[in-house]
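Could you help me review a protein record that somebody else here produced? Do not assume that whoever made the record got everything right. The record follows directly below this note.
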Amino acid sequence: MNRFRIDGSGSRTMIVVKGANLAVVFLLELAALAGVGTWGFTTRDGLGARLLAGLGGPAVLIVLWALFGAPDATYKVHGAVRVAFELGWFGIGVAAFAAAGYVTQATVFAVTFAVSKTLAVVWHQ
């Protein structure tokens, strides 16, 4: 048996690769929150506005994820609505990194998101 094939047959290697992809998706969720928080704390407004944006921005994303995106979400969305939700949710993270001046990180985040979510769709994760 070739241990390094990735053919979707349910081999141990494939199970590990799929598990790693789910871990990457989770880390992307955390990175989106970090990006919004970073943006909020780096705005040029006063301290109050920075605190509000730096703490409130991620809080809003957490509430949205709990309502619509989490596996046990209150109003879980599916299909095209799910795609639109995730593009918007993760897109906010990308935009926040870029707005905070971290353009390279925003680009890496966007590419990693695109690859990981494509694999998740192909693998029905």
Summary: Residues 21 and 116 are 6 Å apart (CA to CA). The chain has a mean pLDDT of 92. The two ends are 25 Å apart (CA to CA).
